Amino acid sequence: MSYLLIPILYGLAAFCWAAAMLPERFGYLAARSHLRWAGFFLNLLGLAAAGYYVATLWIETGHPPFRTLQQSLVVFTITTTLAWALTMRELPVAGLAAAAFNLLMAGYGATRGDSNVHEMPPALQSAWFIPHVVIYFAGYAALFFSFVTSVLYFATDGKNVAAEGKVDFARWTHMLILFGFSMLSVGLILGAFWAKVAWGDWWTWDPKENWALISWLLYGAWLHMRRVEGVSRRAMVILAVVGFFAVLFTYLGVNYLPAAQNTLHSYTMN
User: Fold this and answer.
1) Structural domain contains residue 81
2) Does 236 share its domain with 157?
3) How far out from the chain centre does Cα 106 lie?
4) Alpha-carbon distance 179 to 177, whole Å?
5) Burial of 161 from C-beta contacts in 10 A (0-12 / 13-18 / 19+)
6) Which residues are CB-contacts of 176 (< 8 A; sequence separation ≥ 6)?
7) Quick check: pTM over 0.85?
8) Both 57 and 165 in a single domain?
9) Residue 73: inside a domain, yes or no?
10) How many CA atoms does the CB half-sphere of 83 hold within 13 Å?
11) Among 157, 162, 178, 227, which is 20 to 30 Å from 51 by CA?
12) 242 and 125 belong to one structural domain
């Protein structure tokens, strides 16, 4: 199955979800309902295509296809879609958010290529590799949706509350950040064990490790600030947004730093 099918399906899903959210004057209610169902099934088809891609590549190469950037981006789309499936009942906007984000991630992956898929560096031939990657991407998916809900909370001026029968974006942001922070914590611990086995040190101050720690500290600060009286809603939203951009920089941006070209995590650019 071609990799390009994944961004195509998510792109179609994003179009359907966006069209379904247009005001009533742009179409009949029945048409918007059909578009939502189309977006729903296209999201699932994107998940199936990504899962099939990972499974076939795993069988073909004999190792988990998490080595290259393109492969890891597919895993990211999988965890993001699964997070949407778990939140879609209470977060109607999650369908569009997941489809659009997956389109960006898979589309970016299409520009990177995927060479040396059969080669597996010794450092990645570890029992810690799979749980470390999967747990981190589960956390990343939750933190992406916390970014979405925090922005919506700010955009709605905090008025969408459960008491009014609407989405409580503040509660969702807290739950998603709490889960994401927990996953980052477990991922950091597993990564330390992996580093000890692979390189002989628990922590090497690699740029990727440093930014993973920065992301963890930012979300830890968010959870702490939530319990501090007098902290403004604006400050909480800004910190949630900064935290997610730190996550994206940890995952994608660090690879472009000159200091990261010959580090222990340089294989992620292949």
Assistant:
1) no
2) yes
3) 12
4) 5
5) middle
6) 142, 143, 145, 146, 149
7) yes
8) no
9) no
10) 32
11) 178
12) yes
CA-to-CA distance for 137 and 180, rounded, in angstroms?
9
CA 197 to CA 1: how far, in whole Å? 35
Q: Which domain, by its residues, includes 18?
A: 1-67+91-116
Q: Which of 61, 222, 73 is nearest to 147 (CA)?
A: 222
φ, ψ of residue 102 in degrees (nearest 5): -65, -35
pLDDT in tens, 150-209: 999 988 876 655 444 578 888 999 999 999 999 999 999 998 888 888 777 878 788 888
pLDDT band, residue 116 (cuts 50/70/90): low
Give residue 87's Cα distance to chain centre. Answer: 14
Burial of 113 per CB tally in 10 Å (0-12, 13-18, 19+): exposed
